[in-house]
Specification:
Length: 144
C-alpha cells in the first residue's frame, strides 16, 4: 500500500468531483480527499480512511484518485465512463491509460495489503508460541 505521502488539508475545490463514501474497509468513518506533498507525487489526489496511519497500521483504505474511481465503479457508486480526471466522459483510451508519477495500481495495493495481513498473522503466531513456551517454563519450575 502506497501510504508514504505527506498530506495536506482536504482540498475543498475537489469536493464536488467524486463522492466521499463511508470507508468500505472499517465502516467507521467517511473517507478523506487529500493531496500528496511528497516530491515524487506532489499534488496527486488520493483518498484514505480517517483511521489510516502512514506506518501501515489502522484501516487499510487508501487509493490514488484513479484507483478510487475504479473502487467506486466496483461497488456500484459510479457507472463505467461516468468520470474522468478532466471532467469529460471517459473513452476506451482513457480506460487503458497507465498510472504515472509513482501511482500504484489496485493490484499492487491488494498484494501489499495481503503481505501486511500475512506478516501480522506470523507475528500473532510467534506471540502464541512465546506464550506457550512461558507457560511450559512455569509448569516446569512448579514441578521442582
Amino acid at each position: 500500500m502506497a501510504s508514504q505521502s505527506s498530506v495536506s488539508a482536504p482540498d475543498l475545490r475537489l469536493s464536488e468531483e467524486l463522492p466521499l463514501i463511508t470507508c468500505t474497509e472499517c465502516g467507521r468513518k467517511k473517507v478523506l480527499r487529500l493531496k500528496s506533498r511528497q516530491e515524487w507525487s506532489f499534488g496527486q489526489v488520493f483518498y484514505c480512511c480517517l483511521m489510516h496511519k502512514r506506518d501501515g497500521t489502522g484501516c487499510p483504505f487508501w487509493f490514488w484518485e484513479e484507483d478510487y474511481v475504479e473502487h467506486l465503479k466496483k461497488i456500484g457508486i459510479l457507472n463505467s465512463g461516468e468520470w474522468s480526471r478532466k471532467g469529460n466522459i471517459k473513452d476506451d483510451d482513457d480506460e487503458k491509460m497507465m498510472l504515472g508519477n509513482g501511482g500504484t495500481s489496485r493490484k499492487e495495493e491488494d498484494s501489499s495489503a495481503e503481505v501486511v495481513r500475512l506478516l501480522r498473522s506470523i507475528c500473532m503466531l510467534c506471540f502464541c508460541i512465546l506464550v506457550v513456551q512461558v507457560v511450559m517454563l512455569f509448569v516446569h519450575l512448579l514441578k521442582r
